[in-house]
Design brief:
The protein has 214 residues and is mainly α. It has nine helices and no strands.
């Protein structure tokens, strides 16, 4: 039991460090002056870690990633209220996605159209949508609500990250990269739809910039 506990802590530490590095990189490089970043791979890493771990390991994995999340935001210069709101939204998304994917563990195999559809429903819609609503509510609660454009970008970026990077991380970790490449067309079609939503998000809320200046 002691050996298992030690391995659990080591795995949580590795996931936390990876999450923090990916988060800080995204916050530092992909914001382009905006509030919401354009790439957010770290949630895909945490979702993979949760789906491949015993549920008893979840508190350690989430705690390590949450600490890394907060540190990354603060080091990147974000205010504490925004950091808290983003933390609630991101951790909620990861927990929801991991829980739903565990209920249909074949989803990440993309063995059938039903598996692919379930994966896209969870990672391309349900989890990012829930996260977007939660982060909007959290930012509203702390007195700095995100605009429609920012929430739309949040949803699209998170959906794109889960749909694109979660299968890649899972396939590499399990040595199934060749199998995934053989089913790439299924993911490509899905990713096209997510990218289209992302582009639409940037065009949404045309009065956002005017409100920001005012």
């Amino acid at each position: 039991m002691g050996g298992e506990t030690k391995l659990d802590f080591q795995r949580a530490l590795l996931v936390g460090v990876g999450y923090g590095l990916l988060a800080f990189g995204a916050l530092s490089v992909t914001r382009f002056g905006a509030t919401v970043e354009s790439i957010w791979i770290c949630n895909a890493l945490l979702v993979w870690a949760l789906t491949t771990a015993r549920m008893g390991q979840w508190p350690l994995l989430v705690a390590a990633s949450a600490i890394a999340h907060v540190v990354a935001h603060l080091v990147a210069g974000d205010a504490l209220p925004l950091t808290f709101a983003a933390l609630v939204g991101d951790m909620s998304e990861c927990l929801l996605a991991a829980y739903l994917l565990r209920r249909h563990q074949a989803a990440l195999s993309f063995a059938t159209r039903a598996c692919t559809f379930y994966f896209l429903l969870v990672c391309g819609l349900a989890a990012p949508l829930a996260s977007s609503i939660i982060v909007w509510a959290a930012t509203w609660a702390v007195g700095a609500p995100l605009g429609l454009r920012e929430v739309s970008v949040w949803f699209s970026v998170d959906a794109l990250a889960l749909v694109l990077f979660l299968p890649i991380i899972s396939a590499i970790a399990q040595g199934r990269w060749r199998d995934l490449k053989g089913k790439f067309w299924r993911l490509a079609a899905a990713e096209r739809g997510v990218v289209e939503r992302l582009l639409m998000a940037f065009a949404a809320d045309p009065f956002y910039e005017r409100r920001s200046r005012d």
